[in-house]
Amino acid sequence: MDINLKEQLAELERRALSAIEAADSVKAIEDARVAFLGKKGELTAILKQMGKLSAEERPIIGQAANQVRETFEGAYSKKITALKNADMLSRLKTEGLDITLPGVRRKMGSRHPLRIVLDEVKEIFASMGYTMVYGPEVEETKYVFDMLNTFEGHPARDEQDTFYIDDKTLLRTQTSSVQIRTMLKNKPPIAVISPGRVYRCDEVDATHSPIFHQCEGLVVDKGLTFGDLKGTLEAFFKRLYGNDIKLRFRPHHFSYTEPSAEVDLSCFKCGGKGCGFCKGEGWIEMLGCGMVHPAVLRNCDIDPDVFTGFAFGMGIERITLMRYEIDDMRLLYENDTRFLRQFN
Amino acid sequence: MNLSLNWLNDYVNTEDIDLPRLASGLTMSGSKVEKYKNLSEPLSRIITGKVVQIKKHENSDKLWICTVDIGNSTVQIVTGAQNVTEGAIVPVVLNGGVVLNRQDGSVTKIKKGKLRGEVSEGMLCSHDELGIDKAELPYIKEDGILILSDDPDSSNLQIGESVLEFLGLDDTVIEFEITNNRADCLSVTGLAREVSATFDLPLNIPEPEFNGCDGDIKSHISVEVDNTQLCSRYMAGLVKNVKIEPSPRWLTSRLKAQGVRPINNIVDITNYVMLEYGYPLHAFDKRFIEGGKIVVRSAKENEKITLLDGNTVTLSPDVLVIADEKKPVAVAGVMGGEFSGVVDDTDTVVFEAACFDGVSVRKAAKKIGRRTESSSRFEKGLNPVNVKTALFRALQLVEELGCGEVCKSFIDRVHFTAVENKVAHDYNAINRFLGANIPSEKQIEIFKKLGFGYCDESKEVVVPKTRYDISLPCDLAEEVARIYGYNAVESTLPRLNGNGSVAAALWERNVNKLVNVLTAQGCRECVTYSFVSSKMAAENAIKIRNPFGEETSVMRTSMIPSMLKVISNNINNRNVEARLFEIGRVYSPQKEADALCVGLYGKDESFFELKGIFEEISTAFKIEANIKRMTDSPFHPGRAANCNYAKFGEISPLVLSEYGINERVYIAEIYLEELFERSENKTSYKPIPKYPASSRDLSLICGLETSCGEVADIINAAGKKHLESVEFFDVYYKDDMKSLSYKLTFRKPDGTLTDEEVDSAIKNVLGKLEENNIKLKGMV
């Protein structure tokens, strides 16, 4: 009897497993499950016969029956997962998209290329410990010229170069006026960057504009050297253009610095070999700088025997035009959206 | 400043230095070389030939067959020119040589060949093919081949030799950009000194001398300086029995190389000395100095003078003139008068060498609208001490060229005190200042090479009389550094000790935040000019005294006109929509304020799109905006609002038409200082609610005059303490009524709300609405 039951269980297991094996849909396998394990299923039918067994046989057969159930459940869950996955896959197949259709975008705006460049310049100097300072654009001549050692009669003061409001007021031709204001207000140590708008009487064309943007720097402290000026600008331009950039300091003249220099950068395009972009020179003129003239310090009540300083000024338009290879400066101020959208 | 290399080599021999090195070395020591050009470039293989025989080409009406002696042989050359004669000496380019087309700059390589069957070994050249302007060689009578044997100096020609030297083309011209402070480098001798110091080469500038003949200049002419303020020195020399002729070739070649056109020997001498020493001279014909009296004085009010160029200008007392007894004969330091100059039959010449005040010369030049080689040199400041050298050099040249008899005596009116300019030299201080370690001896060596004297006892540097730009220790530091090499000074990074400013950092953060909000809202940034037409600004706008034109004559008092211009341009360029912003300044006599302007146009834009951007900005800065209706220009009177930091709305079509815009445009102007000062920078975290919310959607009916905001205010006030939010979500209009829908959300922090609690609050809300004639249409 017990042997018979055991055989029936074994037989049941074989059939159940092959039914699972054969099932090709979730419904088929669920049907099989009901047929074998359901309340009216075959395993239940076999277990009902257990009452006829002896007390010794009962646990053995019970264990065997549980074994069959477990085997069945294991095979069942494996198979049903596979079937469900297959179902899912075939559904996913029907959901294929043309991924080359355009994405749906929230329309972002954009920063002006001048701001993009200026933001980078400011970020580098901020990280080097400089503070941003601003000043008026309608400025007194004493801050733009007199206190910067640019005497009455200097060509820079000419009406043909400068927009005047009256004899004592003008549209600043350089942001150096902010340096003077800073030195009058704060005593050294000073380390500031003054970005802003400046004005010159240049008629508009591809390379000139009556309004443009400068960014100047001023550092005043004890013991600052010409070497410090060089090192500062080298560090700055390497951050802006990468480690391969080379700087060349050329003697020059500004009335508010002595010694004065112009700084050339190795050409971005040819790296210094000489090409059309740098007109064969290998160098591109980039900025003016120098050690603050003692007369300028003295004008601001800073003792040049105790303090020294350096200053530098660069044109943001120049950097921008070169970076983006924009060949006409007017584009910067026309603000055609077909131009603006190219920058981010 | 152009420099002839041949001329330079008179004073410092640069033959061992190739041009690129010469140019870069000078650039790096402070005399920036813009470019250099060998004058003969690209000419090659051009020699002098003598036409020994000429016959007609059998197969042509126009061609001639020339037999040309080229020194060691003769060649046959076919030419189409009609001006060649037997015996003429002409420039010949042989097979493989190169000529130029002066008109378009193109280059032609000459090949031996046949012309209608006749061999031609090369070509005879015209002046154009040698790159020479006809005007430079006055003996050229007609177009065609350049007939060198017509040249007054043709006896110097060697048949078969290169023609370049004879034509003054065997030179190189170097173009410099000389800075304002270095008037001394606007001269050959000044640049020679720089070359000598830069390359450590010996310098040889002899002091000019002249022999002179007997005779007293004072019996011919007198000089009176009235305005000694503006004329610190006036010297005059006299030359009698003058022969006006063309200058010799070596002299004219050098003038031409430096960009000065030769006139005649006397005028050329004044120009030669100016180029050589940087000191302008003037030559007067004594006949035209009425009364034999030169007076240096201020011009009289409305006094007139006819200039060398034939134009008459009116003067004023701030212009210094050289006058005779009756009239001004020259504008001092700028330009001579019509009747002052040297002419063909001039017999007695007075050379003027003087020092005029730079600022005064600059103003005078501007006043009469003539900025000359002379005035630009005076402008930069000249030292009266050197005036004598210039005069002596001119007189020396007169003798060398044999243009006349130089009177031994001269007039010298001195109105300055010559002081030796000394600067203390502290080599350690220079090193500390530069951050370098240049030994004392090296520094002194640099000074000496630059022509400075050095006093070993007092450790003082004596500044050369040609230099006006050296008076302070930092000036000495620059001299040392530029010759030592700026790039040889080691770069160091300073430790910055400055304290950052909290306010400055906050400003930067706020501006960045604003830009981020705007770009996230799809706005593109513009940059516009800050001056506008006076029609587009407030009445008290700051006016520019010397604007380009009316369109750019005042400083803007609002950003809106600038934005409208940008929008108008974009519409004209067929950009159908745009969201734009600009952060810039507006200007009033009292202050400059930073402002933001936002401008929208296009089919999807509306007042509420603009208001949405305004609200995003307010939210970003944590400000509860309290906006009010506004009817000010330039806005649409029914579609604009303002608050204490902004105004925004649709622009009135009346204004838009001035800009040629005929679609709706929405603009906001926001004042940054006002915005930022209201901004709350602190954010405190609020716990995320634990208990669920209950909400009710109310649809209400009210009159057209009732605004959405008023209704929300009533709901908010009546909603009791658990009303969390009131959110408007729909409006529609029917007849003379409108329907407004709101979602009311209720929540308790410490438990779940019961329906009764919510219903009671709603009842209260509806009651208050009822009192205001707002009725419930439906509730969900």
> Globular, elongated, flat, extended or rod-shaped: what is the shape of chain B?
elongated
Element-level helix/strand string of chain A = HHHHHEEHEEHEEHEEEHEHHH
CATH topology of the largest domain in chain A: BirA Bifunctional Protein, domain 2
Count of separate DSSP helical elements of chain B: 18
Can you give a write-up of this model?
The complex is a heterodimer of chains A (344) and B (780). Chain A folds into two domains: 2-94; 113-340, Bira Bifunctional Protein, Domain 2 (BirA Bifunctional Protein, domain 2). Helices cover 42% and strands 20% of the residues of chain A. Chain A has helices at residues 2-22, 26-37, 42-48, 57-94, 113-127, 141-144, 176-185, 226-241, 294-299, 316-324, 331-334, 337-340; strands spanning 131-132, 138-140, 164-166, 169-171, 190-199, 211-221, 247-254, 257-266, 283-292, 308-315. In chain A, strands 1-5-6-10-9-8-7 form a seven-stranded mixed sheet, with helices on both faces. Chain A starts with a helix and ends with a helix. With 780 residues, chain B is α+β, with helices and mostly antiparallel strands. The longest helix of chain B has 19 residues, at 502-520. The relative contact order of chain B is 0.06. The mean pLDDT of chain B is 93. In chain B, the strands form ten sheets. In chain B, strands 27-30-31-35-34-33-32 form a seven-stranded mixed sheet, with helices on both faces. The interface between A and B is large, with 76 and 83 residues.
